[in-house]
Amino acid sequence: GQHLADILEEQYGYQVLHHEGTYDVPGRDDAYSRSLPEITRLLEENPQIQVVIDLHRDAVADENTRLVMDLDGRPTARFMFFNGISWTRRTGSISYLQNDNLPDNLAFSFQMKLKAEAYYPGLTLRTFLKAYRYNQHVLPRATLIEVGTENNTFEEARNAMEPLADLLYKVLRGK
């Protein structure tokens, strides 16, 4: 995360607030509920914030799964855009997970995916849709990005930050 923040600031001129709170202890089940008050506070104190990125690595069951590709001679973790849609086939809309920003969240995610395919073919995995909302309701451009898995190396994840920063720049500037 810090490497992404550094690139966005140094190469693209963005002001970045990098929050490193830990909310998945003692367990992941309530991590988003535990993090929401802090995210809300940060957004209230910094109303100029236009994008929220929740950066993770994907947890996979198979210890041999590594999501990596060669990008310009560097091993680079592949990543996916993960969207909470507050809806299930069985129940329909999940009313207690209201997200008025859902159309904008999805548009932002899909724009990122399209730019990735155009500029970095194969770097991104499928766009993932899940019933929960992942605190994406906080802003129109709130996204969850999963970079590699717990089996990827630090170097592979770090190498993914340069193309990710470039994609953010391209989408945010309409390039």
Please explain how this structure is put together.
- The structure is a single chain.
- This protein has four helices and eight strands, in the order H-H-E-E-E-E-E-E-H-E-E-H.
- The model has no long low-confidence stretch (mean pLDDT 94).
- Strand 2 and strand 3 (74-77) form a beta hairpin.
- Helix 1 packs across helix 4 (154-172) and helix 3 packs across helix 4.
- Helix content is 35%, strand content 21%.
Task: Give the strand tally.
Answer: 8
Supply the helix-strand structural class: alpha/beta
**Percent strand:** 15-25%
Label the overall shape.
globular
Question: What is the makeup of the main sheet?
Answer: 4 strands, mixed
Number of helices: 4
Mean pLDDT: 94
Low-confidence stretches: none
Radius of gyration: 16 Å
Helix/strand order: HHEEEEEEHEEH
Walk across the major sheet and give the strand order: 1-8-4-7
Ends apart, CA distance between termini: 24 Å
Q: What percentage of residues falls in helices of 4 or more residues? A: 25-40%
Q: What's the short version?
A:
With 175 residues, the chain is α/β, with parallel strands linked by helices. It is 35% helix and 21% strand.
